[in-house]
Sequence to fold (296 residues):
Amino acid sequence: MAIKTPKDNLILLPKEVLEKLRGASAEELKTLIYLFAEPESTASDAARETGLTVAQVEAACAFWRGAGVFADAAQPKKKVASDSSAYRNYDSATLSDAVENNGDFALVCQFAGERLGKQLNKNDLSTLFYLFDYVGLPAPVICGITEYCCAKEKKSIQYIFKKSLSLYEDEGVDSYDKLEAYIARMEAIRSNIGQLRRLFGMGERALTPKEEKLYNCWFGEWGFSFEMVKLAYEKTVDNISKLDFKYMNSILRRWHESGYETEEDVNSGDSAKNSGTQSSFDEDEFIEAALAKGFE
Fold:
């Protein structure tokens, strides 16, 4: 007897999957089946429909990518959460059902209301549910971001909303572990900038946009410690007898490009790169002398 099987109702998997079945976890198999059934879905969609977290979905994708089943282009993309055209203004019935029957979302609403010291209205609930339902942020992440914003005296749903989208899209924060790592990094940068202000004798004045951009680059993007930035400051003053941000930045840029992370790296120079070769001059001293001459 012939059985009719419409192609639209089939999920076709490549044969490479068979080689990995024995070692695949339940999470990896759930993710595989869902993404082959819904190839246009996002990681958040897959997480919501399979009952996994976004982090678990992405880890499963990495497993299948390593197995050669997923190509890079086939990976689920994160939603562009800040796309205003995708924003959902949920109706009262949907929100009421979510608060009453979804324990995780009820926890988010209770926590946000307590920290903001207000009774959440429909717009507040809709905004929080967008983060929870559409973006796919877990309840602990939304609560953690709420606490982080309130601690900085930014007590509004809209600020929490924008901060959540920024962290999700720009920093990849979609789990509590990632949120903790981000907060720790920001606290370290803040502490380093405070030490730098004292070193420069800046007092309590606000940073200029140029200063803020440089400091965030040195401590954030390039990941230097305060000790390394202090060393660059000392070399700047030794060479040109004054503080000059452009000169100091050129030193730190060169160290960053050379992979220097400690004072020992600076002192030893690029010995591994130049091993077995002879040089009639110290390259670092030559560059610094050239820079100093240009700033005189």
Summary: Residues 176-200 form the longest helix (25 residues). The two ends are 92 Å apart (CA to CA). Residues 1-6, 276-281 have pLDDT under 50 and may be disordered. The chain is about 65% helix and 0% strand.
